[in-house]
Amino acid sequence: MSKKILCLCLWVAAATVALGSLLLLLLGLTVFKPKHPITTVDSIAVSDLHFSIDVAELRVHLNVTLNANVKVKNPNRLDFTYANSSAFLIYRGKEVGEAAIPAGEIGAAQSLNLNLTLMADRLLSASDFYSDVISGTLPLQTNVKLPGKLRLLIDISVVSYASCDLEIHLASRSLDQKCHYKAKL
Prior knowledge:
InterPro entries: Lea14-like_2 (IPR055301), LEA_2 (IPR004864). It holds the Pfam family LEA_2. This is Late embryogenesis abundant protein LEA-2 subgroup domain-containing protein. By secondary structure, this protein is an alpha+beta fold. The chain is built from 2 helices and 10 strands. The protein has helices at about 1-30, 130-135, and strands at about 40-55, 60-75, 80, 85-90, 95-100, 105, 110-120, 135-150, 155-170, 175-185. Strand 4 and strand 5 (about 95-100) form a beta hairpin. The longest helix is centred in the N-terminal third of the chain and has 28 residues, at about 1-30. The protein starts with a helix and ends with a strand. The model has no long low-confidence stretch (mean pLDDT about 80).
């Protein structure tokens, strides 16, 4: 009789382990399936724009400061921990400004707003800059890359990207933007 009870206990234990494993597998493939964090640039505003043309010295003086509101949404049921990163301001393929994004964590199904200030302090050295100022339109691009991890039973590496093409109209001090978003697991 004790052999039968031992055999029955082993079968019950095996069935419990099998059902538990199946339940964990189903939860891992459905509810806890990793999803891409969504990085969006909600707004970009020119907060400071000063330019002048010195005809006597054939020089252009420019100071541009852009404020970008970047939103990172974590659609997962797990926390998203991201590393130190940066947002870059690009002019005709050349980096002209940068803003640091400190490391942090976004809770499950929550969003984080990052307010970044990009200062274009290296624009004057670009060769096409003067012709763009004279034409009245300054083409820029912002790039944000946010690498991080989701932890289920193991760490899952995730990288979220946002890129915006901007056109600053100098005379009206207005801005046109078109943004693209991407994420990799």
